[in-house]
Structures are given as C-alpha cells and as structure tokens.
Amino acid sequence: MTSKLKRGSRSERVGMLKRAVAAVFAMPGDEVSGALKGFGEDEWQAAMWWLDISGLALYLLDLLHSTGAIFTVPESVRTALEDRAARNRARTRALMKEASALAGWFDASGVRYALLKGFSLTPDSVSDPALRWQTDLDLLVARSHAKAAQHFIARLGYTLHEGEGTPSLSFKAGVAGKPDIAKIYSVHSQRTIEVHIADDDSPLLGRRDVRFLPDLRCSVLSGPDILVKQGTHLLKHLCAEFTKLSWVLEFRRHVEAREGDLDFWNDVKAIASGTPNADLGLMVALWLSETMFGPMTAKAIKHWGGAGLPAGVRAWLTLYAQRMLFSDAIANKYYALLQKQVATSPAAARSIRSMYFPLHVPWRIMEPAPNETARERLQRYVVEAGNIFRRLRFHVVEGARMAIESLRLRRAVAGLELGGATGRDARSMILCTSSSALEVPEG
C-alpha cells in the first residue's frame, strides 16, 4: 500500500483513501489500523470535505475509537473529527428535545403518527443518534389528525412554509443563515419539520412500533417498513442530484442486524411486493452495500441479488455509482440517466431536455429576515445571484457531459441485453465500454 501511495498522484492517493475508509466498515477490527496506514495529513485533509458530505465522518470516528485505530489518523484530523462530534451531539440533543415534546403531545392527544428516518434508525442502522448527520424531523401523520399535529408543531414556534393543501407539509422556525459547510454539524438558526399526510387506514400507521431511546419515547414505523423505506429512499435520491454514502452503510447495518430474523424477512417480502419500486430499491441498495463496502453473507442477497436488476439499472450502477458516491461533487446529472431506466419513477414523465437544462430559476437558498435592513437585503441578493450563476454553470457543463454519457450507457445496456450477462460478466462487459468508468473524480 505504501509504495503505491508514493507512486500515485495526489488525487489518486485521496481516491485510495476514500476507498480505504469505505472498506474498513466491513473489516475485522484488528485490520482497520493497517488499512489506513500510509496516508498522510495532506490526503486526510483533502478527504475531509468528502467525509462530511458523504455522512461518514462521525461513523468513521466512532469506528476508529472502537477498534483502537484512532491514532492511525493525523492529530489535526482527529481534532477536527472530535470537534464535529461534539457539535453534532449538541445539535442531536436539540432535535431530540423537540421530537420528545411532539411525541408526548401527540400521544397524550391521540394523534396517530410515526417518526420517520432519523431517530427511528436506532439501534439497527445507527448505534447512537449523535453519530448521524440529521438536519430535520420527518413525521407521518394520519389525515384526520393533521390539524391537531399542526397545532402542536406551532407550539414549538414553527409556521407552515410550503405544501398547504398537499400531502407533504414543510414547517420552519427561525431564520435561514448563509449556507456554510463549516456549520453543518452545529445547531442551525433555522429548523425544519416535514409532515407527510397518510390515509387514516394507512398500513404503515397500522404496523407502527414504539421506540424507546434515551430522552425519547415515540412511535416509529415497523422494522420491515423501515428497511423497505431505506431502499426506496436510496433509489429516490439516486434519481436526484445527491446521495449520501452513509445511507448505504445504514441500510447494510440494518440488513446485518436482522440476518437471522425469518419473520422479519417474510414481512419485508410481503411489504415490498405491494410497494411501488420497493423490490428494485432493495436490489439497488444491496448492490451498493456490497460494491461500496464489501461482500455480504446476508440471505437477503439471494432474494434481492444483483442478477434480478434490469439491464439498464445494472449498467448505470456499474458505470456511475462509485463515480458519484466517491466524488467531492454535491450535485450531478447522472441521475437523469437513471430516471430513464426506472420507468415508474416520479420524474419519468419529465422531458430529457428539462432534466439536462431546466428553464426555471433555482429555489432561493435564503429567506429574508424579519425587519431586514437594506444592507442585509443586498447581502442576501449577492448570495442568491452567486447561487444562480453556479447553477447555470452546473447545468451547462453537466448537460453537455450527459449527452455523451447517454450514448455510453445505451451501448452498455445493449451489450448486456445482447449477451444476457449478469454479475461479474456484466461488470466486465460494461468496463470494456468505458475504461475510465470507475475513476474517482476529485472535485
């Protein structure tokens, strides 16, 4: 490893470090230190942005402590990770305090609800909620109880921001500050609660469980429903601009935690069979779990293995999944190519032209503060203008790139369909289509 690191360019070394970080999550504890040796402070500092946007930074810190490999990492990086952990723990406490208040009010008044994602992933996917980069609270609420839920949310200082009259409501409190990656682990000045309205007879609410965490007792989806949601959530975000690698790790850990639970897997199969794109989402999530982190022995692989993936989806995953998930970029247009392969995705009806180059102004990223001064308004306009120009450049560059990649993907799919290849044969065929398919771009 060391000799290879010395010979490679800086970008190659950083790419090797990213892959090593992913690999250690599936390694025996006594091998973690050796896998990360040989990487210098420069490589680690260059990888910090990716560790943050991938959601793996705090999971890695926890792994380094639990395996005794913490001193393999340069001191400056250890300090930076510990600082992130301390700030995220404070932010998690603030989120949990609000979740606990809402859960108490909902339970006392008979509101039928379930907390989604976030805290509901503990303990199967996430051992400690403070290790997860969570930005808001998501709730599923019965339609007949939506008004009562909105009343209690307003008690915490939230107002309806958007979605009135739709099945998804967004509530916000506080004022949005200027976007800053340095503050992602801190308590934010603006908080968000997303409420998703379900029919009163929703099976999801009918199967819900109660979760007990330190300082929080709340209703959550059943374990099988959570796993199915994790799979469809991954597929949904792969069909959009950004996906966190940590979501794949959380899914993998959930699968491993339930490996011997036959009733659990029977329920997953039953739920997935009646949920649009659920089987495809589980197949994609398992494919990513093995490709990004290493082989799995889970019996779920037999039922949702990669051999069942449609040729177009399998080709897209092999060509672009690692490129996306190891990239420093927080947005891309590879998703447009996947949307074409996932025929029943919500965006399938959108024209290819609108996906490659939309004709609307991007959503604003800052809200005006109450009693905003002329100086503050000017500063906000400058930030918004900068965002518009960055998005314009993104659409021009990525739109041109996707015109080329679309042809490459079509050739790869045609090769798979012609040869009927699966598994490693399919991977080899696709890699022959593009020798640089799995290169890791830096930036």
UniProtKB/TrEMBL annotation:
<dbReference type="InterPro" id="IPR039498">
    <property type="entry name" value="NTP_transf_5"/>
</dbReference>
<dbReference type="Pfam" id="PF14907">
    <property type="entry name" value="NTP_transf_5"/>
</dbReference>
<protein>
    <submittedName>
        <fullName>Nucleotidyltransferase family protein</fullName>
    </submittedName>
</protein>
